[in-house]
Design goal:
Number of strands: 11
Order of helices and strands: EEEEEHEHEHHEHEHHEHEHHH
Helix content: 25-40%
Distance between the termini: 26 Å
Structural class: alpha/beta
Shape: globular
Largest sheet: 7 strands, mixed
Strand order of the largest sheet: 3-4-7-8-9-10-11
Number of helices: 11
């Protein structure tokens, strides 16, 4: 595994600064059922707040990612490509070789205390899920949320993990002093599809229970309906059932996002498709012939259908709350309104 010149993006040559060196890595395995076959590489990172590349489609500028690699094992995950920068493969290694930035909370607290930091919005869960299975052992998120709360720094979290409910009290405390955006990813309800395409995640119904619980405790929660998977999860009846369930769970908004297949994820997804749905391979090759994204006409069709269903079931658009501040705050930049996360 290559640790030198590690960055959160493609290597650009010798000038890339290492986030940590090989001497800072401890490799562990745990012989318990939930972690069997998974290797954890514990690192002491040099930085934790990452600037989003200017060419990105993301509607935010800063992210925090305490983990690299993800045991959710979603076959379509766009972040798979990042494992190739470590000389690991983007398939099984991404699912089972997990980098853990064990000093993430202390690094973040130090960063937020810097006079150079302007209090901008920080997004989490935009690369890999910060509430994946590893978080149950390493518990990095409580320290991260506490640091953001103590500095009244606006943030958002996107997750498929039910473990976020462990931090409910911290989230409520943070929401009392700054803008907090929570989104749960639920692209479909089909259990057979879920078991094969997202094998390491909680079931879609359990994720909707997270939405219901957060909403019941006064924390607004939207749903990123992603990915909508062509020919497997995009039938009008499937879309209707999913949006109906999202509305019943109390979601404040629903944002559809069709499957996209970037390099690294594309190869892994297409191998999965050839094994489970070989009759669809040619259709996918045609649909994604021009690149990573489905054609605009297809994306617009899905968006229109979901938005129509959202209106039918009474889900309104996201509403940006008034900015809140802790007593005697330092100056912070206002949180962006209605952050729409587009990670999957």
């Amino acid at each position: 595994m290559r640790w030198e010149n590690l960055s959160d993006g493609p290597r650009g040559g010798a000038a890339d600064a290492a986030l940590f060196g090989a001497d800072a890595v401890t490799t562990r395995t745990f012989d318990t059922p939930e972690f069997r076959g998974i290797t954890f590489h514990e690192v002491r990172a040099k930085s934790i707040v990452n600037r989003v590349p200017g060419a990105s489609r993301m509607p935010f500028e800063w992210t925090v990612n305490p983990y690299r690699g993800c045991t959710h094992a979603c076959v379509y995950c766009f972040a798979r490509k990042t494992h190739s920068y470590l000389d690991l493969d983007t398939g099984l290694d991404f699912d089972s070789q997990i980098v853990v930035k064990v000093n993430a909370p202390e690094l973040l607290r130090r960063h937020l205390s810097s006079a150079r930091w302007g209090g901008e919005h920080i997004a989490m869960g935009t690369n890999v899920d910060c509430y994946q299975r590893a978080e149950g052992r390493y518990a990095l998120m409580p320290g991260i949320i506490a640091a953001l709360r103590d500095h009244a720094n606006p943030f958002s979290i996107l997750t498929k993990g039910t473990l976020i409910l462990r931090d409910l009290d911290l989230l409520r405390q943070a929401a009392a002093v700054t803008d907090v955006g929570i989104s749960v990813s639920v692209g479909f309800l089909d259990e057979h599809l879920w078991r094969t395409v997202e094998p390491g995640t909680p079931a879609p119904g359990r994720r909707l229970e997270v939405v219901r619980t957060l909403s019941g405790h006064g924390i607004e929660c939207g749903v990123l309906m992603a990915p909508v998977i062509p020919f497997l999860g995009d039938h009008p009846d499937q879309l209707r059932a999913t949006v109906r369930a999202i509305a019943a769970a109390g979601a404040t908004s629903v944002t559809p996002l069709t499957l996209h297949l970037r390099p690294g994820a594309r190869e892994w997804f297409m191998a999965w498709l050839a094994h489970h749905h070989p009759h669809l391979v040619r259709r996918y090759e045609r649909l994604y012939a021009d690149g990573a994204y489905a054609p605009k006409w297809y994306q617009r069709r899905i968006t229109r259908q979901v938005h129509d269903l959202a209106r039918e079931f009474g889900i309104g658009p996201s509403r940006a709350g008034a900015a809140r501040r802790i007593p005697e705050p330092r100056e912070t930049a206002p949180a962006p309104g209605a952050t729409q996360l587009t990670l999957l």
